Amino acid sequence: MSDGKWKNIYSGFFFLSIGIAICIGAWKLGILEGHVPRAGFMPFLAGMVISGLSLLLIFLAVFGRQKRGEANEAKIKGDKKEGSQRIGVAIFALIFPIFLIQLLGFLITIFIFFFFMFKWIERQKWRASAFTSLLIALGFYILFQVLLEIPFPKGIFGF
Predict the structure, then answer these.
(1) pLDDT tens for residues 62-115?
(2) Most buried of 29, 44, 64, 108 (most Cβ within 10 A)?
(3) What string of H, E and C letters represents the secondary structure of 95-151?
(4) 155 touches 108 (CB < 8 A)
């Protein structure tokens, strides 16, 4: 296995241990009381997401295909500058919703955030970006508004 695969495996196990630790701490706080979420509910979900993504990283590192060849190495070197720029844009994208959420409301802001991430950071097609963002916003709505009855900040449009 190459250095890159080992780095992914090591970082995958590192974040898996963090995710498990978060889940254990959240479990001690309490997850649910009937249908009402308790203090550990959101941290438990976050720990599960971190753990799941870490397992996916490990799985892809072990079983995924690895690109080889000098052309790929040159492409990687050229992509480092672009990758740094994309990280800067992603950090901006994480901060910008803080200012939009009170104006536009949670659902519209989360749609815009994910659309921006998919279209300009991940460089997906317009339709795929819009559809995936819509599904995520609907998922948030169903989970929090419908199932857990946790209200979102409402913007100028009233939702």
Answers:
(1) 887 655 544 455 455 556 656 667 677 777 777 777 777 888 888 888 898 888
(2) 44
(3) HHHHHHHHHHEHHHHHHHHHHHHHHHHCCCCHHHHHHHHHHHHHHHHHHHHHHCCCC
(4) yes
Tell me the domain boundaries of the chain: 1-66, 73-159
Q: Which residues, 6 or more positions from 129, have their beta carbon under 8 angstroms from its beta carbon?
A: 114, 115, 118, 119, 122
Would you say 29 and 38 are in contact if contact means Cβ atoms under 8 Å apart?
yes
> H/E element holding 4?
helix 3-29
Predicted confidence (pLDDT) per residue in 13-48, tens digit = 999 999 899 999 989 988 888 878 888 888 888 889
Alpha-carbon span 42 to 30, nearest angstrom: 10
